[in-house]
Specification:
The chain starts with a helix and ends with a helix. It has a single domain, classed as ANL, C-terminal domain (GMP Synthetase, Chain A, domain 3). It is globular, with a radius of gyration of 13 Å. The longest helix has 24 residues. Helix content is 49%, strand content 18%. Helix 1 runs antiparallel to helix 3. By secondary structure, the chain is of the alpha+beta class.
Amino acid sequence: MTKTDKKRDKAIREALTKACEIALQRNDGFQWLTHEVDYKRFPQSLSVTCVYATNAELKAADTASLCQIIGEQLAGIGIAFKDIQRQVGFDTEENRRG
C-alpha cells in the first residue's frame, strides 16, 4: 500500500466511523459496518457492508437513509458516487452466525 493509499484509507475509516456513530443513534438494530477496497481500482472498488442484529430489523430498516449518511460522510472527504446504494451492502448477525 502506498503512502497515499494509507492516508486515503485512514480518511475513509474516519468518515465511516462517523457514519457508524450516526447510524447507531438513528437506526434500530444497526450494529456495525465495515469496508473493503482495492486501491488499484479505487474508488469503484470501495464497498461498505452494514450489519444489523436480525433479519427482521434489516427488513424494517430505512436502508436508503443509511446509504445517504454514508454517502455524505464520504463526500466530506472528497469521495462521491453517482449511486451510493451500489457501493453499500447489508447483512445481519443472524446470517453471519449461520
